[in-house]
Amino acid sequence: MSKERLKDAVRNIPDFPTPGIQFKDLTTLLKQPDLLRELSDILYETYRDKGITKVVGIESRGFIMGPILATRIGAGFVPIRKPGKLPADTIQISYDKEYGKDTIQIHRDAISPEDIVLIHDDLLATGGTMRAAYDLVKTFSPRDIYVSFIVELAGLDGRKVFEPGTKIDSILQM
């Protein structure tokens, strides 16, 4: 299996959710068992020896591979969600993204200072959502933080919103 095969399975949807956005649809990759397994294997190999204790997935597409990876490496899974979706006490942050403003929340008791955290989402575009999630996780003062994406839209320079030295990995560059 190759990363090119994974990349070829990603469908491009023009003008979604707004005109000018080229949406990268990973459902065409995820529906194929061999490609889903390959994606899971790549994530596992990348993070299996990092000591990760919590995988944080960003709503909603971070909820797909995040729990799969957490199960494989023996970590817990923590969701970051839009307001009103988490039932217990939360903290939140609002941020700008490429086509509007948004707010995300995490349970106040989700992460401890002893944790090593991997924050996972499907795609890095301009970086706004992941940077907000990263800032939320940092408020817990975990031992370490890793950032993971399946797809990185390299032309949008989303990495620039993070400080130098932030541990960021992406499987596919598009």
Task: Please describe the topology of this protein.
Layout: H1 3-8, E1 11-14, E2 22-25, H2 27-30, H3 33-47, E3 54-58, H4 62-73, E4 76-80, E5 90-97, E6 100-107, E7 116-124, H5 128-138, E8 144-152, E9 167-173
Parallel strand pairs: 3-4, 3-7, 7-8, 8-9
Antiparallel strand pairs: 1-2, 5-6
Helix pairs in contact: 3-4
How would you sum up this structure, described in words?
- This is Adenine phosphoribosyltransferase.
- It catalyses: AMP + diphosphate = 5-phospho-alpha-D-ribose 1-diphosphate + adenine.
- The protein has helices at 3-8, 27-30, 33-47, 62-73, 128-138; strands spanning 11-14, 22-25, 54-58, 76-80, 90-97, 100-107, 116-124, 144-152, 167-173.
- With 174 residues, it is α/β, with parallel strands linked by helices.
- The strands form three sheets. Strands 4-3-7-8-9 form a five-stranded parallel sheet, sandwiched between helices. The protein has a two-stranded antiparallel ribbon with strand order 1-2.
- α3 crosses α4.
- The longest helix is centred in the first third of the chain and has 15 residues, at 33-47.
- The protein starts with a helix and ends with a strand.
